[in-house]
Amino acid sequence: MNSPEEKLENLKIILADTYSGKTINTPLLIEFKETVEKYSIPKLYFDELINGMYLDLVKNRYNNFDDLYDYCYKVAGVVGLVMLHIFGYSDERAKEDAVNLGIAMQLTNILRDIKEDFLRGRIYLPQDELKKFSITEKDIEKEKLDENFRNLMKFQIERVRLYYQKANKGIMFINDKKSRLVVKIMSSLYSSILDEIENNDYDVFSKRIYVGFGKKLYKLLKIILRKG
User: Fold this and answer.
1) What is the DSSP letter of 218?
2) Could you tell me the residue range of the domain that residue 166 belongs to?
3) Positive or negative CA dihedral for 31, 35, 41, 46?
4) What is the Cα–Cα distance from 134 to 59, expressed in whole angstroms?
5) Dihedral pair phi/psi, residue 19, rounded to 5°
6) Are 223 and 192 in contact, with CB atoms under 8 Å apart?
7) Domain total for the chain?
8) Three-class SS of residue 174?
9) Fewest Cβ atoms nearer than 10 Å: which of 141, 180, 202, 215?
10) Same-domain pairing of 22 and 53
11) What number of other Cβ atoms are within 10 A of residue 184's Cβ?
């Protein structure tokens, strides 16, 4: 069986073949090739996505937010760019905000999944910020929920919300009205995870934080009634 590294290398070869104009016989790859050609999706985005996957194989700590941002861009920001090409856009400013939404959603995942990631040997929270709030890896291991941890989470949540705010400004540049509505719903529901973390007193250890069906429905109706 191929190792994860070998699988990623094979994926790079497949991607290169897809964009090179070579004849492809695999039905799934034919569909992929037709999609990237139809929507003019740059190969670079998928290259970055693969690089992000590779990071998860070789890196389990991030020194500072710049390092973490680079990771988030590769695994999520470029996904926003891919989707933007599919949705269509009327202004180049939409690209920056598509990246911002991907970054915001990935950072939300990181805050929600601190415990699960630690159990997998990973800490995505920047090391210098852990130090700033006097939090050690042992504290995370012991699931220590004290004021230091709460203050760290408040700091993280405030930054993530800024990314959502930036991203929401660019939704207006998406051409298709239905696609704009989809992105608004995605942004609203995902950012609600931050509210739930706060409502749970920043305790991301005792249970997995999620937005209940009732709240999802409320937000969905609220967005629809505003006519997207």
Assistant:
1) H
2) 40-225
3) negative
4) 23
5) -90, -10
6) no
7) 2
8) strand
9) 141
10) no
11) 19
